[in-house]
Amino acid sequence: MLGVQVPPGLPVFPFSKGWKMEKIKLLMQKIMLFLNDAKGELKRVTWPSRKQTMASTLVVIIVVFVMAIFFGIIDFGLAKLIKLILG
Fold this sequence. Notes:
The protein is an all-alpha fold and 87 residues long. The chain folds into two domains: 16-45; 47-87. Helices cover 72% and strands 0% of the residues. The chain has helices at residues 19-44, 50-86. The longest helix has 37 residues, at 50-86. The relative contact order is 0.04.
């Protein structure tokens, strides 16, 4: 040989018979592991009660309404200012 060596752990012939099936099996194992871990994490989540969810939703709706009014007033004022400046 000319001193070329294959590092350990790398397949010498990656397209040998059955290589693709092994890759698919490994991918499926990784997917299943991920899904099982995600399921375990979801079991540990402290979910808010219905009352907490409703209160948070109400706060969001009120804040959105207030911000819409605020930006509407700013928009109206700037539009009047630009009309005043430009004639």
